[in-house]
């Protein structure tokens, strides 16, 4: 990996980006400033709620619905403070719409230039371009940063707007379709409970040597022997040496490396982890995939393929082209159960609704009740 731009002088980074005329972060990626705007609005609502509720309790309970000069003074102070706060909120909103700070832009530019120097194109998106445990379902998903090359993509993804799960990931295309295999990394927390689906533990497969100390392997029923073919000793050694920090999923014609939390692509460590997986792990996996055929599908075993090619050559002067390998229906997907259904999903939805209600609805209702209490009393 060419990592020169991660430590280059800021002036050189800015000059290089000016020559490229590249855009910054997409508008749909929230900034710290935009999050501060939402926090400020919530605090303003709670301020009004607590101030007017305190006044209402004092007037209705302690003063028998009599408004004194001190109450008028306090109400005026509450209103004046809120008006000044509104002015500050207006300027905070305008500030949030300004371009990112020079430091943030330099950070983004460093990772953009590093990607381009290594043949990757920055392409953030809000739509998944691959199937995986971390993209399953209809949740809104944000891919930023995202870097793409021929048959490769990697970056960070966030599921949902409300502080959803964040994953760092790498996807490498394989030459043929493969059975669905999951390798839960012990270093990355295994098949995490943070995933939207649950893997049936009955599909756990134990492999030889020390591999089980690093990965938990899951294979579809009747595909245990296929998993042994896909994961020969040299592939297992490569996974341990170069990708033990990632969970790994082989699905359709892709191998997906993923782990919890975002990677900082303005730092060398993130790029070196990607480089290790691409150079040390992907090549043996691709070589194994090239040789793999699902013999559970009629006509794909070695003898049938040889007979088919011989018949095709004898019946025609044209060269024979092997049909695209297929995977049997039983091997296409592991048995998974959706965590987003049942009581856990209901409780999660209720919890999120309760948080939103506490932040906005509760203070709004108490504010309305407090104001109406003062108004109705007089």
Commentary on this structure:
By secondary structure, the chain is an alpha+beta fold. It is 49% helix and 17% strand. It is built from 11 helices and 9 strands. It is elongated, with a radius of gyration of 29 Å.
- Head-to-tail CA distance between termini: 74 Å
- Rg of Cα set: 29 Å
Helix content: 40-55%
Rounded mean pLDDT is: 81
Poorly predicted ranges: none
Helix count?
Answer: 11
Task: Assign the structural class, choosing from mainly alpha, mainly beta, alpha/beta, alpha+beta, or little secondary structure.
Answer: alpha+beta
| Biggest sheet layout | 7 strands, antiparallel
Strand content: 15-25%
List how many beta strands DSSP finds.
9
Order of helices and strands: HHHHEEEEEEHEHHEHHHEH
Task: Sum this structure up briefly.
This protein has 378 residues and is an alpha+beta fold. The chain has eleven helices and nine strands. The mean pLDDT is 81.
């Amino acid at each position: 990996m060419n990592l020169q731009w991660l430590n280059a002088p800021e002036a050189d980074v800015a000059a290089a980006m000016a020559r490229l005329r590249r855009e910054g972060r997409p508008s749909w990626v929230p900034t710290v400033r935009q999050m501060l705007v939402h926090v400020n609005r919530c605090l303003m609502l709670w301020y009004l709620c607590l101030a007017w509720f305190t006044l209402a309790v004092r007037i209705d309970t302690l003063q028998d619905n009599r408004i004194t000069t001190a109450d008028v003074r306090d109400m005026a102070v509450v209103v004046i403070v809120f008006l000044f706060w509104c002015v500050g909120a207006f300027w905070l909103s305008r500030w949030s719409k300004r371009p990112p700070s020079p430091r943030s832009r330099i950070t983004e530019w460093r990772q953009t230039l590093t990607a381009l120097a290594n043949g990757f194109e920055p392409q953030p998106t809000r739509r998944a371009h691959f199937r995986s445990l971390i993209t399953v379902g209809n949740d809104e998903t944000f891919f930023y940063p995202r870097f793409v090359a021929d048959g490769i993509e990697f970056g960070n993804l966030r599921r949902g707007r409300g502080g959803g799960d964040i994953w760092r990931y790498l996807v490498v295309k394989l030459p043929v379709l493969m059975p669905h295999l999951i390798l839960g990394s012990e270093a990355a927390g295994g098949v995490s409970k943070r995933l939207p689906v649950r893997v049936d533990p009955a599909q756990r497969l134990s492999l030889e040597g020390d591999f089980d100390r690093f990965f938990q392997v899951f294979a579809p029923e009747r595909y245990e022997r296929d998993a042994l073919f896909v994961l020969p000793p040299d592939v297992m050694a490569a996974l341990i040496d170069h990708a033990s920090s990632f969970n790994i999923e082989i699905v359709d014609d892709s191998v997906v490396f993923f782990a919890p939390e975002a990677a900082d692509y303005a730092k060398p460590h993130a790029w070196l982890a990607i480089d290790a997986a691409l150079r040390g792990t992907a090549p043996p996996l691709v070589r194994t995939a090239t040789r793999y055929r699902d013999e559970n599908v009629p006509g794909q075993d070695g003898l049938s393929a040889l007979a088919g090619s011989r018949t095709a050559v004898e019946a025609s002067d044209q060269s024979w082209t092997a049909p695209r390998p297929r995977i049997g229906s039983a091997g296409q997907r592991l048995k998974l159960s959706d965590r987003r259904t049942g009581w856990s999903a209901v409780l999660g939805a209720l919890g999120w609704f309760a948080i939103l209600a506490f932040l906005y609805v509760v203070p709004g209702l108490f504010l309305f009740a407090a104001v109406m209490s003062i108004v109705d009393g007089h």
